[in-house]
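During the second year of the project, the team shifted from modelling isolated chains to modelling whole assemblies. The rationale, set out in the original proposal, was that interfaces cannot be judged from single-chain predictions alone. As a representative example for this report, we include one of the complexes processed in the last quarter. Its constituent sequences, exactly as entered into the pipeline, are reproduced here:
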Amino acid sequence: MSDQHYTASDPPAEDGTGPAGAGGELEPRFTNPGIAPHAYRRSDIDPKAAKRREREVAIMFALSTLGTLLFIVGYFAVKLENVPGEEMLERVGLSTKLLGVGLGVAMFAIGAGAIHWAKTLMPDDEVVNVRKPMRSSDEDRAAAVESMKEGAGGAGVGRRKLIRNSLLGALAPLGLLAIIPLRDLGSLPGAQLTGTAWKAGKRLVTDPVGEPILAADVPIGGVIHVLPEGIEDMEHVLDEKAKATAIVIRLEPDELKEDPARADWSYNGIVAYSKVCTHVGCPVGLYEQQTHHLLCPCHQSTFDVTEGCKVIFGPAARPLPQLPLDVDGEGYLVSREDFQEPVGPSYWERGER
Amino acid sequence: MAPALLLLAALGATGVAYTAIAPTPQAEASATANTSQIDEGRSLFLRNCSSCHGLNAEGGSDGPTLIGVGAASVDFQVATGRMPAARSEAAQIPDKRVQFSEEEIASLAAYIASLAPGPAIPSDEELDYSEADVAEGGEIYRTNCAMCHNYAGSGGALTRGKYAPSLKGVTPRHIYEAMLTGPQSMPVFADGTLSPESKREVIAFLKTTESEPSPGGLSLGKLGPVSEGLVGWVFATGGLIACAVWLGAKAR
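Output from the structure prediction step:
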């Protein structure tokens, strides 16, 4: 093509600077090792070998055709309509396998064939193409500046102040177009993050069965996953469940080392804590009865139930919020009030509470 | 004299009234078990269990008290081979070869049940899960059990070498008893908080999961992201690396 092309048969400059020094602007810092002598492939020398490679490529392309056929046959041969449940599972399994293997072979074999073709039969002479300097010539640069100045003068940006100012007035608020649609992300959370569905006197019911819990029925060492009664009828059930979900655990009363300020939050050794991990909000439900440790299955944050669910291991930063408990006239567990702090992971406005 | 007689009558009346209204103990086994079975159980206990659990099952430094644990607990621990335990078992007592015959286990259970009321061994009717709602059982299982025993009952790790064992192949009776008594690290799911109906639903869910075919082909032990990720990294990434090496290699 040009004198900036080198091939293996046409070795680089004799001075050892090679392409890097071609512009003459840089001091040669390394000796150019040049290009290794061209190694001929078997298919370059032996026509029989070339013929064999050709056949191999053709076989790969043929394999791809077979894969496409397998896909089509699999699509039509495995009927998924009007099939009883048990057989359906097997049919779906077979269909998925045929379609997947067909598609995989069809695409992979084309790629593999193309690469085999390129590697074994297409010309493989090493070619060096020297990079041109990025800088334009001085004349071009001067001409560009001249043309800019001419254009600006002609448009009269400095002279026609009305146009300039109204353009600035149009450009400045353009950013609003990017900001205004953010409103669709929804209203600010407001008090949604600080309060849950728990209210004074609300009965605890089992999750998912929904039975109220007699305090006397909770065994020592027992665990119950609970929700507030009536949560199923709330407007955003899943949101409310995600916040209100709690775990009830009963220990021997003398095993609890309670904060005196919270002494009346437990009942007969029964305590309730938010089930939403204070790390990133996974359900903390893994309770070891003998160690009284409550674990989060996601990142192994460990909370000590005997000491107000304080964090004893893992990435959680704060204890789980405790749900104050009471018992109503019929002996059922009720909440005394809502959690005293926002449940779940930290967020910016959460504060120190 | 009259006040004394009145007191006696009042005491007697209270006693009679109490027996009428007092809750009947859960341990039905103690009522049905005959004395010879209890004696047999006691002698088995003295020979095999008392070195850790005390001569009167009052417990000691090596084992907890067994007074009030009930027949269900004995049946679970002994009939799954967890008891008697070897002394070297540090983190957790594993299930292993069962050491006693069925009659011996029944005698041991009868003896422990005779000491104090406790959860009884569930009857065949209580274990009949053929009518149970599998989907409901799945919901209960995922809320109460899946965090330790894995979503398909394959088991999982706890802290410091402890683990929740796999539930595959465990008999419905032992699953039921485990829920009822809360062995080792497991919490107690008593009948008052997880009804017998719910327990049967959980068992039905587990047994259905066990026999379910795997439409994807390989279930990889139903262990979830750990085994699936391992296969993904080893085989998929390995395959990609092999392709990259082939792409970069010069043809000969």
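The first helix of chain B runs from residue 2 to 21. Residues 23-31 of chain B have pLDDT under 50 and may be disordered.
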